[in-house]
Amino acid sequence: MIKYSLFLLIASSFLLQATSSPDSPPSNCFTKKYAVYIVSHLPPNTPPLHVHCISKDDDLGYHNLTQNVEYRFAFCVKPLVTMFSCRFQWNGKDRGIHVFEASWGNNRCDSLSRDGICYYAVQPEGFYFTNVYPPPKKVGFLCDWNPKSKC
């Protein structure tokens, strides 16, 4: 009975810790913490970038990003389970991307620091990525706006 109770306590803590927070990273993670940053590097005087991010457990709402505006959310990962995807819409373009997936064999968001960083810069030609924050001046090209291209 004690083993069963201990198992339930540990399992519950893992389930509760994966909740995301748009304001600040969770401070009591039992697993690795991640932060996802999305910044609009779209031209001035164009429509804002519309972003909607969700996971199985969380709907982070709709956000309109004007030029150089950054949106961030953070979470504790549930190993092999946590996945966040975002839909990006801008100027007639529409693209969905998995911005974090715990089941990635080589997680692109892992960095040399204890916490994982997923930094996405959205530009007219597509999406750029780095796992460093603050980002370097040049970040690597990830994919274009074509929904059929691999991201």
Blueprint (SSEs and pairs):
Layout: H1 2-17, E1 33-40, E2 49-55, E3 59-65, E4 70-76, E5 83-90, E6 93-101, E7 116-123, E8 126-130, E9 140-143
Parallel strand pairs: 1-7
Antiparallel strand pairs: 1-4, 2-3, 2-5, 5-6, 7-8, 8-9
Could you walk me through the main structural features you see in this protein, from its secondary elements to its overall organization?
The protein has 151 residues and is mainly β. Helices cover 11% and strands 42% of the residues. The protein has a single domain, classed as Immunoglobulins (Immunoglobulin-like), CATH 2.60.40.
Number of folding domains? 1
What structural class do the secondary elements suggest?
mainly beta
Give the strand order, joined by hyphens, for the main sheet: 4-1-7-8-9
Q: What is the succession of H and E elements? A: HEEEEEEEEE
CATH topology tier name: Immunoglobulin-like
| Proportion in β-strands | 35-45%
Biggest pleated sheet: 5 strands, mixed
Give the rounded overall mean pLDDT: 84
Full CATH superfamily name: Immunoglobulins
Instruction: Round the Cα radius of gyration to an integer and report it.
Output: 17 Å
